[in-house]
Specification:
alpha/beta; 7 strands; Rossmann fold; binds thymidine-5'-phosphate; 8 helices; 5-stranded parallel β-sheet; 232 residues
């Protein structure tokens, strides 16, 4: 028996526009940190200096003529850097990573929204991630009309926010399909409810995360307690 560092957990937050991810991300962050979890919060596209530059390119409405494939490849370019520079090293150090969007967003937006065949997305996913997947994904789901109403209050729209309702309907459907395909990883949060009710749903998920982190992880690698654990 020897002591090694626990591998952290990779938790991703997903959802359409106006789903309240940012507010809820802060809530989850506070709750996990209070429970003693060492946590790095990040986002995609972005999360590294290079990735944030790619994000600017992707979200800039001046690039209205960007092809779907260029968009897809830029998402994965930012992701490759994020994995290499931040996510994998942090997890290896024992920190948890809470990430605002990851590859499910690519299946939803570039797959569902833009209509790129998911088989092509999978090729890039396999290449860049080599099997790596989030430990848990929280999908903030709400009717598109409500989400657009909420998001519309925020002022200037980025290149994605400028899309039409049908685009976001396809995004929502693709997300829900992802969740149906992988019910073990996904937790669907009804984001159409009032904030207090959404947070109640989150409390259950957070409880589950903390409890499960005290036992062996799905990867059979960690029993988290502080930053060290005992490996048998
Ligand atoms: P955010 O504003 O929620 O941070 O996300 C930025 C936008 O990028 C959002 O409209 C969704 C989009 N996006 C994709 O289209 N594909 C992806 O793979 C990711 C991570 C985000």
């Amino acid at each position: 028996m020897h002591q090694v560092k626990a591998r952290g957990r990779f938790i991703t937050l997903e959802g359409g526009e106006g789903a309240g991810k940012s507010t809820n991300l802060e809530y989850i962050q506070r709750r996990l940190q209070k429970a003693g979890v060492v946590l790095h919060v990040s986002r995609e596209p972005g999360g590294t200096p290079l990735g944030e530059k790619v994000r600017e390119v992707l979200l800039n409405p001046d690039h209205a003529g960007m092809s779907s494939d260029a968009e897809l490849l830029l998402m994965f370019a930012a992701r490759a850097q994020h994995l290499h520079q931040v996510i994998l090293p942090d997890l290896d150090k024992g920190s948890w990573v809470l990430c605002d969007r990851f590859t499910d967003a690519t299946y939803a937006y570039q797959g569902g929204g833009r209509g790129i065949d998911s088989k092509r997305i999978r090729v890039l996913e396999d290449w860049v991630q080599e099997g790596f997947q989030p430990d848990m994904t929280l999908l903030f789901d709400l009717p598109v009309e409500l989400g657009m109403k909420r998001a519309g209050k925020r002022g200037a729209l980025d290149r994605f926010e400028q899309e039409q309702e049908i685009f976001f309907e396809q995004v929502r459907e693709a997300y829900l399909e992802r969740a149906r395909q992988d019910p073990e990883r996904f937790r669907i949060i009804d984001a159409g409810q009032e904030l207090a009710e959404v947070q109640q749903q989150l409390d259950d998920v957070i409880e589950e995360l903390i409890t499960s982190s005290r036992g062996p992880s799905s990867r059979g690698q960690s029993i988290f307690k502080g930053s060290e654990y005992l490996k048998f």
